[in-house]
């Protein structure tokens, strides 16, 4: 069974300019995900897809050999992610002559994952009898309790009211925020119909402190702080939660 890791990084970014190359602890942001994929020792191939020559050069400097030039049509502000992943895998298969059974996409903007998150998500797919696995953290808001929508009449209502209302958040059904960290698919499920949600999709749960996705400059500052704390760079005291 062969596995590929795709890392898709567009050159443009609205929230944080040149986000995927932003310096974080002495490395461009994309390098953290590349190194995590390499150190997981899970993959027969690691491929980086980008429309940016600078991003592809950075990936090459960190040891990536499969550099996939993304077509302009897949690199616009409105481009969907799944066609990019599919193009990356197809191009990697053409370059390597291999057919990959398991596809793992890791988002550059969610670099707080640990090796055990990667191995755990892949194991859940391979052992769990499902088409794909997504990752997420327990939601801070619940559509059954305190997440509301504004209706066409401009009045607000609970997003998912239950027949018997809950009076405590703890009594509501558990909900999760997707953290955009790791997506795992079986190729046989993905290629005929690329989707994030199938009828048998499973979720690999990650904690809050490994689930922040960078959308704006504040997110970037927080992620940098958390990574520095994990590495013991702020105080010289190594974080006991850091993985061996």
TrEMBL record:
One of its GO terms (molecular function) is N-acylneuraminate cytidylyltransferase activity. Keywords: Nucleotidyltransferase, Transferase. InterPro entries: CMP-NeuNAc_synthase (IPR050793), Cytidylyl_trans (IPR003329), Nucleotide-diphossugar_trans (IPR029044). The keyword Nucleotidyltransferase applies. Pfam families: CTP_transf_3. The keyword Cell division does not apply. It comes from the Bacteria. PANTHER family: HAD SUPERFAMILY MEMBERS CMAS AND KDSC, N-ACYLNEURAMINATE CYTIDYLYLTRANSFERASE-RELATED. This is N-acylneuraminate cytidylyltransferase/CMP-N,N'-diacetyllegionaminic acid synthase.
